[in-house]
Amino acid sequence: MLTPAQGASTSIYAAASLEMEGVGGCYLYNGRRAQSSDASYDEDLQAKLWKQSCALVGLPDEGRGPE
User: Which of 2, 30, 46, 67 sits most deeply, having the most CB atoms within 10 A of its CB?
Assistant: First the structure.
């Protein structure tokens, strides 16, 4: 189990580090760049998640989703 400070450290690093300035679209794990799971690149799964997320929060699914 992580403490709140430990859990927030990667987000704080991403937001405040000069090394991350101008960097986007990467996955960070424990303060370092890493490759996300293979499932995260599955476009069919992304579309299903988008539709389900819209339904859960009561927003219309207008065909938008991860690009």
Answer: 46
In the DSSP assignment, the letter for residue 59 is -
Tokens 């938008």 locate to: 64
Q: Which residues contact 45 (CB under 8 A, 6 or more apart)?
A: 39
Q: Does residue 8 carry a pLDDT above 70?
A: yes
Contact (Cβ atoms closer than 8 angstroms) between residue 20 and residue 13:
yes
Alpha helices in the chain (DSSP H): 4-16, 43-57
pTM attached to this predicted model = 0.57
Dihedral of CA atoms 6, 8, 67, 45 in degrees, nearest 10, equals 50
